[in-house]
Task: structure prediction
Amino acid sequence: MLADKLVSIDSIQRKPVVHTGIVGGGKACYELLKLFHCYFPRYLDITIVGVADPRPDAIGRRYAEQQEILTVDDLTTLLQLPDLDLVIELTGKDTVLE
Result:
């Protein structure tokens, strides 16, 4: 019987949400955003909350804007976002880590 196979919404465990910011809005950012747009990790809900890059023409930053993801010019502004859980650094520059 179909009613026996239905699962209560209360019994489904929700995945933890990881509010994620990306530093560096270039090609790697673009590819990562596209990946998270169509791939949903099984145990986490990765939510991109912002992309930081000073270059308004960077491909990842432009794609983020198209997806209505917040874009900022600097890392400091990104780090001030409330509930930020994770930062992915894609610039490859050691100075960003300092």
